[in-house]
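Running log. JK asked me to keep both predictions on one page so they can be read side by side. First protein, sequence followed by its tokens:
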Amino acid sequence: MKTRYLILAPIILLLLLIIPLVFLRNQTQKPNGNHSISSSPASLNPPPAYTIATATPDGIGKFFMGREIAQVMGHPGIGWLERTEREQEEAPSKAIDLLRLAPDTVIADIGAGSGYYTFRIASKIPQGKVIAVDIQQEMLDHLVSQSSQRKITNVQPHLGTIDSLNLPPDTLDAALMVDAYHEFSHPVEMLASLHTALKPGGLIYLLEFRAEDPAVPIKALHKMTVSQARREFEALGFTFVANNKSLPWQHLLIFRK
């Protein structure tokens, strides 16, 4: 009898150790309200849908949350982007100062175009980098040429697509969009791509001409209201941070991942 107890004792002790572990394992595998499904901003709720209607003269006939998407300014518009009056009309130097970028910031200039903002920002972040994203190879060719002429080494031209930045996850401290977002033909996909590329807590600086102000001499579809911008960005998982109203023609809206 004593021998049998000696044999059973280790078995009983082992069972007492295993049963609680199995119970805890089952509990941790149960779904709960705080369980994270995906880091994608559209994973928890379906993103807003696009609608199609007759295009207006400056639009593409595709609508997002009630806003018709504007036609894209092509590379022949470089002259307008580089106009001498731009500093007086838009105060880009002031806008860049308002970004308050750390010297080692990695920032994407999305819809970089001629590089008007790209090169001005590059000089402010000597230990950082500006990733100049555009979907037009002609714009990137211009950026490469200008980088060489100006001997600027911290600008990286990058070819995106109409629905993706094609950037690795968690690589950006910030992103800047200057009068470009309203032309994105796939804003849902682009914002989801941007959400992925930004580091946690990364910021978006959105510059758009003020649609609330009829005195701003820009075509209607190339302007945005604060309320419309907030609706779209917040629907895709970004948090509104601030609206700086000190520029002559534009909003400077800040969102956080």
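And the second, directly underneath as requested:
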Amino acid sequence: MTFMEHVKELRDRLKVVALSYVVSLIFWLIIPRDLTNPASLLEGIYEPMLSLVLDNVKSLAGDELIIIAGRLASPLEIYFITGAILAFITSLPVIAYETYKYINPALYPHERRSLYGFMAAFIGLYTAGALFSYFIVVPLIIRFLAFFARVIKADPIITASDYYMLVLSSIALMGLLFTTPALFVLLVRFGVVSTDFIKRNRIYIYGLLYILIAIITPDGWLVGNTVLFLPVVSMIEVALIVARRYEKRREELSEMNAKQCKFCGGVVYPDNPFCTSCGRSQE
């Protein structure tokens, strides 16, 4: 394909992504929550699909916090910001598929397998991080804030904007933080970083990681930071073991003065251009 053909393909795929995002946005902001009662809008009891998510987020506060609107425009801002975030999450499969189809012709088979593994790990870890934040970290933060409000004899009141942004940002950022091990393994597999570097600088890396977690955690308190810090460190240690396997593979090939097959990942010796596994020529 020529450069302009690549640009046109990129344009077409971006159109699909944009359309999927708009459809997702309409779904969350406009489609009625109760599909069994389409006349709810006329009856004055209409609620969009978005309210399902907001109800669950609000339930995390329980009786610990009193949520108020604050500014008059805050509910409208929360409505559209939350809708935009949910539309992005909903359209992520389409974004991932269109991205993959665009770069797929440039990938060798073993690179595709690496990408499949990385995407599966990334999605799984992100989901685990988001759920961990939703069920454990955020409730702990809420109880902590409410406890000290009672200590100083104050009503635990929070504006709706602050509350929903606290919960949504915590879930999104902590989900991303949980994907760190998958990204690390991918970088090691492609030779960008080494496991020895992590092992030699553990104390500094984990110190910076704790500072980052303290910044991400909205309240920045010791217990909340530790609850999130320990699982991430555990996953990084497991990632070191997994990544070391790929390094050993590279070292073995280097000792044999061989290289990896660009089609199947097998062994190719310097005196033979054909892969010992799939038999395909590297030239």
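Observation for JK regarding the second prediction: The first strand starts at residue 66 and ends at 68.
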